[in-house]
Design goal:
Blueprint lengths: L2 E5 L2 E3 L5 E8 L7 E7 L6 E6 L6 E3 L7 E6 L4 E6 L8 E8 L13 E2 L3 E5 L2
Parallel strand pairs: 2-11
Antiparallel strand pairs: 1-3, 3-8, 4-5, 4-9, 5-6, 7-8, 9-10, 9-11
């Protein structure tokens, strides 16, 4: 059974950092591109970042200003998202997802499996 389980979210102050994790199981982790999406209250889910099979290709949404870093550890079947210099507008549920496509898919329809999300709240 395929499972993607996010963790690492929490309540932090502006400027703080968090490291989100996504543990994958039940599928060939290393043969799936992986990505992060987020959904803020009252907003549609949006793309954050993606990473290819062996981390050769990385893509992080430019609007995030280099504050986020995506990585993966295939030996641990785990995907990560480092969040730095967090802002209130980063408040959202963060979802990880897996795609059969090669490269760095950037749209929801390109992903096959989804986690249930982890909450990130940035507030003073």
């Amino acid at each position: 059974q395929v499972q993607l389980v996010e963790s690492g979210g929490g309540l932090v102050q502006p400027g703080a950092s968090l490291r989100l994790s996504c543990a994958g199981s039940g599928y060939s982790f290393s043969r799936y591109s992986m990505g992060w999406f987020r959904q803020a209250p009252g907003k549609e889910r949006e793309f954050v970042a993606a990473i290819s099979w062996s981390s050769r290709n990385l893509y992080v949404r430019d609007a995030l200003g280099g504050r986020f870093t995506i990585s993966r550890d295939n030996a641990k079947s785990t995907l990560y998202l480092q969040l730095d210099s967090l802002k209130p507008e980063d408040t959202a549920i963060y979802y990880c997802a897996a795609s059969r496509l090669v490269g760095v898919p950037r749209t929801e329809d390109q992903y096959d499996y989804w986690g249930r999300g982890t909450q990130v709240t940035v507030s003073s």
